């Protein structure tokens, strides 16, 4: 089967480097049945990655194999049934939409102090942990997740705890996701390139679900649950008026926040300061996580998209947003 040029089957081309990588994953082959896997296919028909399908969500097979996250086939059902308290605070967002940023802001508001959290957001991220580990956390708990609404703990609706849902424009989000995923790949894995990841974003092959599918689940709930779901935008907190946005979050969380305290939080949570503070945190995986902080800018997508890619992306956004009330900012003047 193995040849210098790779293996071609079912009309797909599996590169030699990818085949060699999978060959080295001996345990991986025993843990995950082939029927549970789907390939990530680029525009040339080449298989560039493999995903595990769990509850209609794509989970990177390498993430599971490397132990970055618990096996989602066992952990996702546990998350659905995990214990939820009515004073819980849950940060929900698509990948690279501002989860870490909002989690730090909410944590500061929750404890009434602008001191950074000692641990990282991954230590209280639903899909990164066995939910039993959250039972002994001090309350109110500030948790976070990238999961779709349908995969959240059932107790979220029953307890009506507070949910902060943040969005970011899809183009900057895709660029940031690409750099993040590229940084997380093991050195021996086939390299990821921008053209391939951009194609994945155009064909619904992103991690978990496409951004618009993630949005749909939350948007459907927002109309009925505005008392316990707050909708926010990355761009508004970033540049428009961070102090006003922080005070809006404080009001939703029912905590006191003066103008001075909001200004202090805005300063502590700017990109440069958070990047520096993160170096001192207790990381779950590794200290070499520079890919977590890249630019944090609005409009960086212009440095990545070709004219053709941008046109295709604009068409996709228009098509998927025609029934949505949300509008995105792609630049800040």
TrEMBL record:
Alphabetized UniProt keyword annotations: Transferase
Q: Name one Pfam family in it.
A: Sulfotransfer_1
The Swiss-Prot or TrEMBL record annotates one GO molecular function as:
sulfotransferase activity
Q: Does the keyword Transferase apply?
A: yes
Report the InterPro entries cross-referenced here. P-loop_NTPase, Sulfotransferase_dom
Location of the Sulfotransferase domain: 86-323
Q: Which PANTHER family match?
A: SULFOTRANSFERASE SULT
Family label: Belongs to the sulfotransferase 1 family.
| UniProt-recorded name of the protein | Sulfotransferase domain-containing protein
Classification from the root reads:
Eukaryota, Metazoa, Spiralia, Lophotrochozoa, Mollusca
